[in-house]
Design brief:
The protein is built from 2 helices and 10 strands. It is mainly β.
């Protein structure tokens, strides 16, 4: 059975009610940094079955615990992920999906045979875009679909 992964970034201390509604029912939430609120991280952590997150450039003053490093590499449903706030910090090998944030601009790319996902910002998008997240469905080591969801 396919698993749903919702990806967010750059919430900057504001959890939009539309964001919380959108992530309801996901199997895994990935946050690509700039959470900037320990209470927001705790709320996200309590809202989903599993969360993987990284620190962004504005997270240095916050303590989210040891589970929120600068680079987070893990496997979920046979798919290898690497998550970093900056795209340049993602490893070039050994992953199927790289997740980044920072630019506040949503994009899904293919680079060197791997998928790179930036969900944009769920609270402070740039360039006239709407707040957004990314959503992946994975099963048996494969990404079945990937899309940007406007909130």
């Amino acid at each position: 059975m396919a698993k749903r992964i919702d990806i967010v970034s750059d919430t900057h201390g504001y959890l939009d009610p539309r964001l919380l509604a959108a992530i309801d029912g996901c199997d895994l939430l990935i946050h690509a940094g700039d959470i900037t609120s320990e209470s927001d991280y705790a709320e996200l952590e309590a809202s989903v079955p599993a969360i993987r997150a990284v620190q962004g450039n504005n997270d240095g003053w916050y303590n989210y615990g040891p589970g929120v490093p600068r680079l987070n590499e893990f496997e979920f449903e046979g798919v290898r992920f690497a998550v970093a706030h900056f795209r340049e910090s993602l490893p070039r090998e050994g992953v199927d999906v790289g997740v980044c944030g920072h630019t506040h601009r949503a994009v899904i790319d293919r680079v060197d045979g791997r998928m790179v996902v930036n969900p944009g910002s769920a609270s402070l998008p740039r360039g006239g875009a709407k707040p957004s997240i990314a959503r992946l469905f994975v099963e048996d080591g494969a990404v079945l679909s990937a899309e940007i969801i406007k909130l």
